[in-house]
Amino acid sequence: MSWAGIKKGFDIYLRLEKSLSEATRSAYFKDVSKLEQFTESVPVSSITHETITSFLKSLHELGLEATSQSRIISGLKGFFSYLILEKLISTDPMEFIEMPRTSRKLPDVLSIAEVVSIIEHCDLSKPEGTRNRAILETLYSCGLRVSELTELKISQMRTSDQLLRIIGKGNKERFVPIGEEATKWIQHYFEHMRNHMKLSPGHEDFVFLNRRGKKLSRMYIFTIIRENCVALGIQKQVSPHTFRHSFATHLVEAGADLRAVQEMLGHASITTTEIYTHIDRSRLKEEIQLFHPRYGKN
User: Fold this and answer.
1) Is 176 helix (H, G, I), strand (E, B) or coil?
2) CA nearest neighbour of 240 among 154, 105, 71, 119
3) Which domains does the chain have, with CATH numbers?
4) Any idea which residues carry the catalytic annotation?
5) CA distance 87 to 73
6) Which of 52, 55, 178, 291 reaches 20 to 30 Å from 243, CA-CA?
7) pTM of this prediction?
């Protein structure tokens, strides 16, 4: 089968069986196309472990960062797993390929006081102030991704159980508890703003709407947070994802079970969640350096 035919089948597999987003499928295709270019379109069945090793060496020589190399390897592993599944090849050339070592960058985290100040800075004298307060309360209460917040629907809210049914990456479903403060401000938003709005057709079920009765954009959530941070003089680079990181970090610091945090964040692997234990340890080190009488002080 030609590369074009194989890639078409791979796309159908990623879309229908794996339920991957368009962005993820596009990234996989770019990775496969890079390999196709490198091999000068030799038949897929002719690709060996040595071919892959040479390809990865060329990426390294081009100065590609380890994180980018890891992403490409991950994409190719998925591609060759598909070929094995479809019996288009009998031997997986990716079988003994290891990921390059990468240094894990710790995300920026807000203190509890900073989170509270950003949330409480919303101007409640403006019509959208109550909605913005409800948005920030929900982000921090539930640790949602910004896309999960903008896509949140009324039909996903189980207020009697204080739970949200979240559809995350790869259309994976999870239930996330929502706190009393977030619930209270969502109710205020509905009572004082949303219940009195003219809703745009097709947007009736979305929780958070703009003045035109349509669901909010991701960029608008960034804008709310940025404006509040500027007004408060907070110098950190703060985004909706910073609220998610802060949510997880504050839970881990308070002693929450890592598996529970993993489930609330919707992480496929506990390894991803473990980064928050590293943040906690780094903060402990900072504390002891600052306050211990004989720890690295002259």
Assistant:
1) strand
2) 119
3) 3-85 (1.10.150), 112-288 (1.10.443.10)
4) 145, 169, 241, 244, 267, 276
5) 21
6) 291
7) 0.61
